[in-house]
Design brief:
The complex is a heterodimer. Chain A is mainly alpha-helical. Chain A folds into two domains: 76 residues, Rna Polymerase Sigma Factor, Chain: A, CATH 1.10.1740.10; 86 residues, Orthogonal Bundle (Arc Repressor Mutant, subunit A). In chain A, helix 1 crosses helix 2 and helix 2 packs across helix 3. Chain B is built from eleven helices and no strands. In chain B, helix 6 packs antiparallel against helix 8. Chain B is mainly alpha-helical. Chain B is globular and about 65 Å long. Classes of the chains: A mainly alpha, B mainly alpha. Chains A and B meet through helix 1, helix 2, helix 5, helix 6 and helix 8 of A and helix 1, helix 3, helix 4, helix 5 and helix 8 of B.
């Protein structure tokens, strides 16, 4: 069955996106499943203007937003300890004393962004979509999309700047 | 010189700035280079925002959890599914996009490697060799994301080709576009020293050439041989390479 192949192929990527949107492992798993079911139900609405990956991401983003509005978003954030890369692994020099703060600081900064800012930044920075694709996924104009990314970047830089060694 | 804002530098970082001259301006100015480096270092810290790792069988787990709900849906009828599958397998190549990505990636890489001397030391435009130049533009990330998107489309098209009993009406046109994009990405990968990726993309080319030309006008036997070739290993290799690109597991 073709849909099974698509589920096998896209599950990991959808989980990564859902987790970054929710910052909650169990919520991300729920979001992925719900998003695939929605994709199945709406396959007739898929249009060729976007790639299949973008279409799935749009469904995942919408599902995550719905989910987050219904659930408390921060509870897991306080306790979960995902696997973080060290600063050395991401190619940036930081004070050794502040390395421990990078993970929590990044996550906290990300969760302090507005929904639109966070979504735009995630789709651009981590998923590698073009700004035009991000705008399509979020169903906003390209200009609005850029503004969301610019605001998100400004806020993230302010939050992360103290962690970069001078 | 016009005022360069942090928003301009953000667009440059993500390879989205519409003015190609900006990269050169940044390379030529110590001040701009320093600003760009600061932005780059701060944004790279965000790469530490890694999700918990799922096992290899995660996709299968998801499928098992949702499949019972899918079976009850009317969408499982053959005609609708076939039409949908056919639709998603149709690629949406943007050769202009591929070309611009490749140009930016190669420019960034070359300037970074040569300190910018070769490409921007034009007569009358002195270059400060100590500047950060464009070494910090993440040409690797740019190329990886682009090739990954390309391989996703290749995967869809090859899957459809391997399972189609007769040629699709636009199969040849898609294969031609895919071939051109594939060559651009291969050249960019080679110029960045990504020999494994370049070799893999080179391996794809003969099949894409055949798909563009012979699969449409050739015999049924030719088509079946090509389908067998795709099913026997090429499709698997495309998927594995794309996964490796996405996970950055190996130095490609």
């Amino acid at each position: 069955m073709a849909f099974r192949e698509l589920v096998l192929e896209h599950s990991h990527a959808m989980f990564r996106l859902a987790w970054r949107l929710s910052s909650d492992e169990s919520a991300a798993e729920d979001i992925v499943q719900e998003a695939f079911i929605k994709a199945w139900k709406n396959i007739g609405h898929f249009r060729m203007e976007s790639s299949f990956k973008s279409w799935l991401h749009r469904i995942t983003v919408n599902t995550a937003m719905d989910y987050l509005r219904k659930h408390v978003r921060r509870k897991q954030f306080e306790t979960e300890e995902p696997e973080w890369e060290t600063a050395d692994q991401v190619g940036v020099t930081v004070d050794t004393g502040t390395q421990i703060d990078i993970s929590t600081q990044t996550q906290a900064a990300m969760m302090d962004l507005s929904e639109a800012e966070r979504t735009a930044l995630l789709l651009k920075h981590y998923e590698g979509h073009s700004i035009q694709e991000v705008a399509r996924i979020m169903e906003i104009t390209t200009g609005a999309c850029k503004q969301n990314i610019f605001r998100a970047v400004k806020k993230m830089r302010i939050a992360l700047r103290p962690l970069v060694a001078t | 010189m016009r005022n360069i804002t942090d928003d301009d530098l953000t667009l440059l970082f993500y390879g989205e700035h519409e003015d190609p001259a900006l990269a050169v301006m940044v390379a030529e100015s110590d001040q701009l280079s320093a600003r760009y480096e600061a932005l780059s270092n701060e944004l790279k810290l965000a790469d530490s925002y890694l999700p918990p790792v799922r096992g290899d069988d995660y996709g299968q787990d998801v499928w098992q959890r949702i499949s019972s709900q899918l079976n009850s849906e009317p969408a499982s009828n053959g005609g609708r599914l076939k039409a949908w599958w056919s639709a998603i397998a149709q690629p949406r190549f943007s050769l202009a996009g591929a070309l611009s990505i490749v140009l930016v990636a190669v420019l960034a890489f070359t300037l970074g490697r040569n300190g910018g001397q070769e490409m921007i030391n034009a007569p009358g435009a002195p270059f400060n060799g100590d500047s950060v130049a464009l070494a910090n533009i993440d040409s690797n990330r740019l190329l990886t994301h682009s090739v990954s998107g390309h391989l996703e489309q290749v995967n869809l098209v090859l899957t459809q080709f391997a399972n189609a009993s007769e040629p699709g009406s636009r199969e040849a046109a898609y294969a031609t576009d895919m071939l051109v994009a594939n060559r651009l990405y291969r050249q960019a990968a080679a110029s960045q020293g990504k020999r494994k990726l370049a070799a893999f993309l080179a391996d794809l080319e003969p099949l894409l050439i055949e798909l563009a030309h012979e699969a449409q006008s050739g015999s049924l036997a030719t088509r079946e041989r090509m389908q067998q070739e795709v099913r026997d290993g090429l499709l698997f290799r495309v998927r594995v390479m794309n996964k490796q690109l996405n996970k950055s597991e190996i130095s490609i």
